Amino acid sequence: MKKLHAIVSNLKLAVEYSETTMKLFDNIKNKFNPDYADYPINFAF
Hints:
This protein is about 70% helix and about 0% strand. The protein is an all-alpha fold.
């Protein structure tokens, strides 16, 4: 059960990390191109 718990908490961390990363990319995109702030992130910029 400990292993399972570790996996679950790692998944939670991964989700939090990716959400933070997405927000970061949103902020960067908003600075460069406010008009397209509402569109999905395009990593190619």
